[in-house]
Amino acid sequence: MTDVQLDNAIVRHAQSASRWKTVCFSALLVAALSAASMGVAAHQTSASAAAPAASATATMQSQAQPTVSPSPTPTITPTPTLAQVVPAAFANLNQLDGSSTLASAGVELNEMQRSQLMERIEDFRAQGYQASFVVVDMRTGAAIASYGGMPMYTASSIKAPYIVSLAQTGAVDINAVATSATADAAGLNQLITQTLQVSDNDTYEALYKQFGAAPTMQWLAGTDATTGLNGYYGDVTAIDLARMWVNSYDYLFGASADAADAQGRTWLAQQMRSSLNSSIAAVHGEGEIVASKAGWIYGEGNLYAYNDAGIVIPAGSMQLSEKPQGYVLAMLTNACARDDLLTALAQTVDDAMRAA
């Protein structure tokens, strides 16, 4: 091979090597791009494969349970505690029109409730009697009244609030009385039991002579009561008698009372159950708690009264300080010996409270 031929061969070899380098670089670039593309494609393929599965799952869930549009979050109103209800009750009692045939505060009566209560009120008036009543819903403090501001003679219906005032103000040690812990306490136990259960006037007189009116006046401070005791008994309005029983409910069943009095309070409430001639107790079953005190007088001293007042708590009610139940009712009338009229009124009031 000549030198010229050798030189030409070297040139051709170099050109061939250059072409192969270009081809190899291109191949590597294509391979790299292809790998990247495959990675993206693989990711897309994987996502695409997952999407149908998710879609299928959603479809299955949709078929198994229909989609429900979200509802607005309901507003939950907490149940008032007794500590909240008691001041609300006093405020509503202040708002009542005491001269109205039928008034309410904190509640609006429906037509049926109004009609039935008006019918009971008319029953008294049609037979020549005067009657007033006040009921306080102890779940809310709402109050309803008929002639609630008319002063009437209490007769013995004042005895229970009077004794509660002695206990709550500390004029008597109600725990010691309940257990007859001392001779003096045993004597008070007898006086209180006879006064509440059989309305003994002599035992009430003995209590009143010993303690007077001061404990009751102290007890009523802050309730806005405008009438109180006069002698052993007195004229009060149904609104004020209801105030006394709201106070009694709070003491007997409320957390605000001294826990050390628990045994005494339980005993005291028990003495007011099944009290003599109670029209309120007459319309309630054994399972319900009725702590009440009736009062009556048939012309002695030219006084006429047939009254009843107290607390009604439905069967099964518990933790009344946290979730108060039932109501307070005060009825003042001059319908002597007319159990039928008072019982009918008590029943109609109970129906209205249950429907509220």
UniProtKB/TrEMBL annotation:
Q: Which residues form the signal peptide?
A: 1-42
Q: Which residues belong to any copy of the Beta-lactamase class A catalytic domain?
A: 132-315
Keyword Signal annotated: yes
Superkingdom of the source species: Bacteria
What Pfam families does its record include? Beta-lactamase2
Which keywords fit this entry according to its UniProt record? Signal
Q: Which SUPFAM superfamilies match?
A: beta-lactamase/transpeptidase-like (SSF56601)
Gene Ontology biological process terms, A to Z: beta-lactam antibiotic catabolic process
Sample GO molecular function, one term: beta-lactamase activity
Q: Does the keyword Signal apply?
A: yes
Q: What is this protein called?
A: Membrane protein
Source organism (scientific name): Bifidobacterium pseudolongum PV8-2
